[in-house]
Amino acid sequence: MPFPNVPPFSEIFFERVPVLHGFQIAIANYLHAERQRKEKNPWGGFLWRRGVRRLTSFNAVECGVFTGSSLVACAKYASESGIPLKMIGLDTFAGLPPLSEQDKLLAPEDAVYRSQTLFTETSRAGVQALVDAAGLTDQVELMEGLFSQSLPLLEERKYHYVNIDCDLFEPHIECLEYFYPRMVRGGVIFFDDYNSVNYPMAGKAIDQFFRDKPEKLAQLRYGDDAPNRTKAYIVKY
Length: 237
Hints:
The protein has one domain (21-235): Rossmann fold. The protein has eight helices and seven strands. It has helices at 17-39, 42-49, 69-80, 101-106, 124-133, 147-150, 169-179, 200-210; strands at 58-63, 85-91, 140-144, 159-164, 183-191, 218-220, 231-235. Helix 1 (17-39) runs parallel beside helix 3.
């Protein structure tokens, strides 16, 4: 069953719903900024109020795609809302990378990923097929490889939304160091694993990065409290 991009949501999707809500917050901030930009020009404001809205590209990234369900749900929501979207999905498409020393220090002693590679049930071809089936081929681009390999290859641009869902310590730091300075004012960085019991290194990495930054973490949960249902995000100042 695919993750729907609009309600109602069955309970099996409760953990994923906050990522869609974070995406919607980013779109709302983007539309507000677009209108403010148009209002600086009298004709632009006039046309906006009459529904003529030549929008700039909404740039989004998902760092940690896995099977692509959240990526496609967010992209489909933007497409159906008339948002000109450019979304990039970054993943190894081969499971978690090797643990760093920091990961080994912070991982629970009984964590399965200490002894085996998790999240291997994916492939770039499989996610691409999902993207194509949703009619999103022109809006979504997939890039395969470690973040240390793919981030330097990205075209220089500003971003409105980044979903970081990569579990481990160093990948969080790599993504934040790259995307944080490239976020637009009002842009959203969403953290799937901030409160994760299985991957406590994610929250440690996020806290370390933001200890000298002005932004404060906000939290989202859909449904009753349960492990890993509460997600976090920041809005860029």
